[in-house]
């Protein structure tokens, strides 16, 4: 069963590896749309702390959301890879991010770690999502290990281009489902707020 699950995930990853990535103008528009969808949702716009990711070229841009939330006085955090999972630390300016594991921008090592709770929001990148909130990541399980399900977990919002949504994404018992999915076309709650 585990072997079949991994093979199914690998097929989708291979399929998406050749999929076209948004051009610069599409990426800018997607980043602006992300701001509109996040701030247009009563629950997400009220989150006092928001964990973002520093987008890679195939991911929804997050810099516009960072700037919009910073203007509104939110505490903004970014992940840093640790052996046990992701640790989240705050930054006051985007320029504070520095190359972390895999070359992905992360908070400096001296930044204090924050424990995220149920009032906080986390924007989670993914290669693919489905309407049930299942996520296909790169396969290392960083977000899955970092956010076990439970009432004290933050709100997890999967972020991806709409072209990366699938009817079904293979998932296992250790995979952490999203509470909502956001694309450049809109935000959809899977569980919780609506």
What structural class is derived from the secondary structure elements?
Answer: alpha/beta
Strand/helix succession: HHHEHEEEEEEEEHEEEE
CATH class: Alpha Beta
Spatial gap, N to C terminus:
34 Å
User: Biggest sheet, open or closed, and with what strands and sense?
Assistant: 8 strands, mixed
Question: What would you note in describing this structure?
Answer:
This protein is α/β, with parallel strands linked by helices. The protein has one domain: Rossmann fold. The chain has helices spanning 2-17, 24-39, 42-45, 63-71, 142-146; strands spanning 49-51, 75-82, 85-90, 98-99, 105-106, 113-114, 121-125, 128-130, 135-136, 155-159, 165-166, 180-183, 186-189. The strands form three sheets. The chain has an eight-stranded mixed sheet with strand order 6-3-2-1-7-10-12-13. The chain has a three-stranded mixed sheet with strand order 9-8-11. The chain has a two-stranded antiparallel sheet with strand order 4-5. The mean pLDDT is 88.
């Amino acid at each position: 069963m585990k072997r079949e699950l991994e093979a199914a995930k690998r097929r989708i990853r291979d399929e998406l590896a050749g999929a076209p990535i948004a051009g610069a103008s599409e990426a800018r528009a997607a980043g602006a749309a992300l701001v509109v969808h996040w701030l247009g949702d009563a629950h997400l716009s009220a989150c006092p702390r928001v964990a973002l990711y520093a987008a890679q070229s195939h991911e929804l841009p997050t810099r516009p959301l960072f700037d919009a939330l910073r203007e509104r006085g939110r505490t903004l955090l970014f992940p840093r890879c640790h052996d046990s999972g992701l640790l989240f630390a705050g930054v006051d300016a985007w320029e504070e991010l520095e190359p972390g594991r895999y070359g992905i921008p992360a908070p400096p090592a001296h930044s204090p770690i924050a424990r995220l709770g149920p009032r906080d929001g986390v924007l989670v990148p993914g290669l693919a999502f489905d309407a049930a909130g299942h996520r296909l990541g790169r396969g290392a399980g960083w977000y899955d290990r970092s956010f076990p399900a439970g009432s004290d977990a933050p709100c997890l919002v999967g972020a991806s281009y709409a072209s990366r949504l699938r009817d079904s994404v293979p998932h296992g018992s250790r995979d952490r489902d999203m509470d909502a999915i956001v694309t450049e076309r809109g935000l959809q709650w899977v569980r919780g707020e609506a």
